[in-house]
Automatic annotation (TrEMBL):
Family to which this protein belongs: Belongs to the cytochrome P450 family.
Keyword Oxidoreductase: yes
Gene3D superfamilies assigned: Cytochrome P450
Required co-factors: heme
Membrane topology type: Peripheral membrane protein
Lineage of the organism: Eukaryota, Metazoa, Ecdysozoa, Arthropoda, Hexapoda
Subcellular location: Endoplasmic reticulum membrane; Microsome membrane
SUPFAM superfamilies in the record: Cytochrome P450
Native species: Loxostege sticticalis (Beet webworm moth)
Keyword field: Endoplasmic reticulum, Heme, Iron, Membrane, Metal-binding, Microsome, Monooxygenase, Oxidoreductase
Function, as annotated: May be involved in the metabolism of insect hormones and in the breakdown of synthetic insecticides.
Record's protein name: Cytochrome P450
Amino acid sequence: MYISLVLMGVALCGAYVAAWYRTRRARRLLAGLPTYPELPFFGNVHRFFGGGEHLLQTLADLSEKADEKNLPFLLWVGPCPVLMFNGGEDVKAVTNAFIEKPYYYRFGRPWLGNGLVTGPGSIWKHNIKNLSGSFNSSVVDGYQAVFNAQAQKLVENMKKEVGAEPFDAMHKYLAYTTLETVCQTALGVPQISDSIVTTEYYEAFNTAVLLLIKRGLNLLQHFDWVYQLTPSYRQLMKCIGIIHNVSETVINRRKLEWEEKNKSGAKDKELDPSETRFKSFLDILLEVSERDESMTLDQLKAEVDTIIVGGQETVATTLFYCLLMIGCNNDVQNKLYEEFKGIFGDSKRPVQKGDLTQMKYCEAVIQETLRLYPPVPAVMRYADKDLKLNSCIVPKDTACGINAWGGGRSRRCWGPDVLQYRPERWLDSDLNHTHATYLLAFSYGRRSCIGKKYAMSFLKTALAYCVREFHITSEAEKLKLRVDLALRPVSGHLIRVHLR
Ligand code: HEM
């Protein structure tokens, strides 16, 4: 025990000195940027302790300071610099220059392998060429029947809550709805709910997310060899085993079907559309694997798991905040209802592709929600070379934060009513390219979200079903939030539904 502690102490000191030596040039180049006073050894790391609420306060505080000065905010994690960018030309330059991510993205690799989110830049660069169009309009349009069925199921479930106590829509319904939707469209399995999203899978999925967050927030566990000694590691591996087992089973079955189809000499190499009635993400990957040897079975699994993770909580969280916001902004809800009435009349018919393009106000509601409540408040890039910006030089080896919370709440960009929930601002013809660089919920530039079109189509569909059926109320003006990778509520997050 004593020897282990001494060894750990020596390793930590060694790592600190090496990192300090490597980043002394950064200290010189970044002097003058807004920052916090540093503690010896820890830098500003103590600002991240104290739980998710405290973390959000820190993020909000540094975002405001950066906005006031119109400069990136500098943090020191031990001896290592982290620059936080709120938006504007800097974000554009940083996201286009850097495709590497800091080391802690590796924590997700036991689950997501070298998929798009967690893979190293070189692998991402190769695969994105094949996958960037995976969720283009024609593919996503093919998912509309799944979106409708899932939205219908959601409102049927929520009807149980009519006249009941306020409830937590996220955990009771939304998380499950989006997990089913994304599994179904990613894997292309009909009747997925019975066979795939079992309670065991759902629980393993949620626990794995929480364990990864826990690791991220515990600096000591950043060392692989420390983490591998913990019970959390064993629990994580168990959860990942359950999740992988599901995706592997489906992938293997689908791959066999695909190979048999090819052997039988079918001219059209797409799977029989009658089986799924849409082209799943897995189908797209199988097509890629035919012409690109680097799309191995492992890589294919990594990409499928990535899509499921990338699309599940983000979409559920956005829908959740949309419901909360319209629940405490009656005027907004009325306008939304009127828009749906204009499109559907009194009918509760399924949403069609053409309806989605007419939902302009609905789109504004989603954008405004994402501006104030980005599900992923910040993402990171790693500077693998120097980059000259107008505001500073980003030195090689600096971590760069793309701060969606700060961008959406930048007074400089959005004006004095920045904190007001006002979807109308998105209908304003004065909105321009600069505003786009401050709406960072989907990140920006290279390695930004490829599921934006998917997310918008599903969210519009789900909102149409919910608002046609229910009048929603919430007390979200009392909403309290925390950050633990995702933006999560602490209180003020319950809703009530009333039949229209
Ligand atoms: C409102 C919903 C969504 C939000 C707010 C969102 C947000 C984001 C963000 C912030 C990133 C950048 C991650 C990083 O740099 O670390 C990202 C990447 C990604 N998202 Fe989304 N996402 C959403 C929906 C979806 C959906 C529905 C899918 C797929 C079905 C998806 C798939 C992905 C993938 C594959 C990446 C990695 C892209 C790359 O690195 O090239 N996302 N998303």
